[in-house]
Amino acid sequence: MVIITPGQKAAISSQAAAYLENIRHPPLPGLLSPFIASPSRIPNLRLTIGQKLAALEEEHIKRYNLSITETTIADIPVMVIEPHVIAPSNESKILINIFGGGFVMGTPRERAALIMAGECGIRVYSIKYSLSPEVRYPIARDECFAVYRKLVEIHDPANIYAMGSSSGATLMITTLLLARKDKLPMPARLFLCTPAVDLTGAGDSMVSNANRDIMPVALLSAMVRQNYAPADPEFDFKDPLFSPLFASYDATWPPTVITSGTRDISLSSAVRFYWKLRGAGAKAELLVGEGMWHGFNWEVDIPESIALRGAVREFLFSDN
Amino acid sequence: MVIITPGQKAAISSQAAAYLENIRHPPLPGLLSPFIASPSRIPNLRLTIGQKLAALEEEHIKRYNLSITETTIADIPVMVIEPHVIAPSNESKILINIFGGGFVMGTPRERAALIMAGECGIRVYSIKYSLSPEVRYPIARDECFAVYRKLVEIHDPANIYAMGSSSGATLMITTLLLARKDKLPMPARLFLCTPAVDLTGAGDSMVSNANRDIMPVALLSAMVRQNYAPADPEFDFKDPLFSPLFASYDATWPPTVITSGTRDISLSSAVRFYWKLRGAGAKAELLVGEGMWHGFNWEVDIPESIALRGAVREFLFSDN
Question: What start-end ranges are recorded for coiled-coil regions in this protein (chains A, B) (predicted)?
Answer without folding.
Answer: none
